[in-house]
Amino acid sequence: MTGPSARLRRLRARQAEMITALELLVDAESPSGAPEALASCAARITELFADRLGRTPEQVGAHLQWSGGQADGPRVLLVGHYDTVWPLGTLARHPFTVADGRATGPGSFDMKAGIVQLVEALATLDDLSRVTVLLTADEELGSQTSRQLVQDAASRASAALILEPSVDGMLKTARKGTGMYTLRVTGRAAHAGLEPEKGANALVALAEVVLTAARLGRPELGTTVTPTMAAAGSASNVVPAEATAELDVRTAVPEEASRVDADVRRLATTVAGTQLSVEGGPNRPPMPSSASAALFLRAQSCAARLGIGPLGSAAVGGGSDGNFTAAAGTPTLDGLGAVGGGAHGVDEHVLVATMPERAALVAELIDDLLAAGAGA
Asked: What is the pTM for the complete model shown?
């Protein structure tokens, strides 16, 4: 590679192949928690690595680890995920399409385009010996089985680049921490018409608890507590004996995670005969802007050399595996994946003209980091 301009030209010449690769990955539906579907998608990713890089990833459970070699010295870690929020069969209703410069399809933006861009970026590098890649299969579920892998990989790296999608083209320089809770109320069933007084209404108790939980947020500190899903009852004429609700917690301040956790566990019902249990807890710690500051400045310089700047930055409420790499003390820059929008929605899309540009940015940033000893 002779320089940034040549790299970008080379990648732009491969835009059609990048779209083809994206279609292959999107057509391999990969909802979190669907082992066979995930394995099928992992096989296609493995083929992509073999074709473009000549070296296949190692499978660790459902997750994929790849290394360009065993050279000594600082390493750059690239992190992504190939599971999606879309259930099997979504593709039949929303097939992969390309029209008006937009590629659409379940998981296209979040984040299969990022995987394609990652591989294409690496294919432009002369030396991959100090590059590692981790693609996980349960990020959308909170990285329950991959968290340790992410943390271990981050501990061996001097910088972590996260291929999650951008925010309107902006890189993600800070993220809130996340927490996930299930509130489960048990009561006692009874005939709702004949003898409701013999029951203990779990739904009424849950409603009381959920309203209290919803007041635990502190927006002035960036803390939100949001009830998101609920279920109760077995029939319309039966006093509900069970009821459950899910809570989504987001925190910008680390101490708030502990405060909310304690408050959630203090929740109680006042409905006689019912009992509340709380499952879950804090999941991802916040990713502070300090973790990304130096890397973002480097990325801005790389974008300027490529002629694709200026780059913007955004602090976001969603969590990613970048929260874990930052918590491990590894400088982390997120949102380096697709440009587009509609994550988790039916309008999910990728702006295909930006795929070569973002691949070039990632490659340029890796080169820049390795030339500087991977210091952020």
From this structure: 0.91
